[in-house]
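Blinded run. Sample ID left blank on purpose so nobody reads anything into the name before looking at the predicted structure. Input follows.
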Amino acid sequence: MHTIWKGSISFGLVNIPIKLHTATEDKDIKLRTLHKECHSPIQYEKICPVCKVELKAEDIVRAFEYTKGKFVVLEDKDFEKLKKENEERAVEIIDFVKMEQIDPIYYDKTYYMSPSEGGVKAYSLLRKALEESSKVGLAKIIIRSKEQLALLRVYENTLVMETIHFPDEVRKTSDVPNVPAESNVSKKELDTAIMLIDQLTTEFKPEKYNDEYRSALMELIESKRTGQDIVTPTAKDNVSNVTDLMAALQASIDRTKPQKTTEKKKRVTPKIRREA
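Blinded prediction complete.
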């Protein structure tokens, strides 16, 4: 499993060298966009709208737009300085809380944690302590140049880190339009709804659920593939890209040369008239 981050987690005087591994994967079917006429994949170019030129990676800088049309440019050295300052800090568990106190709206991404060399015992200790206390640890961590709030918990005998949103990243429910302030439902309606919920209540077994749309789309793609309902891009013309002047002249001469015939012309022997 690929390691995306190396560091250490500490709580009190206990330090645990760990590695992070992405726990989930995106299985969405990636579709390409093609030109309808020739079925060639479409390329997206980065073009400056003012200079009308295509930009390379070295021509592009990052900036923050603090007001419409006005930017503060940030250079690579600015990010490197921040990254170094934050990487030198150990990831410290700052609080322990009950997991049910954290609403799922805060959850972002899940990572598995494995112990690095020399961290097995401390890893086992934290895992056991979290299980026995029924608590989760809250910590801060820098991942991909972004500080994130995270919680540490146990999942199937493995320590898991859940990155969670900061409070100011969660929008206020008061901003949601058309939410009724009071519920105008009768007791009979409520009792019927609760009865329906009770009838549909079951034990959560994740393996019984699957992405039916993705499965149907893959079946469609496979049926088209096996039925040879496929397309290929139109071949590009091989245009000579000659930049040197002498090479361009030579290429022009070569293109205008008459082709050599493989058959030799028959020599015609002139007839000599003999006088009588």
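Unblinding after everyone has recorded impressions. Residues 64 and 72 are 5 Å apart (CA to CA).
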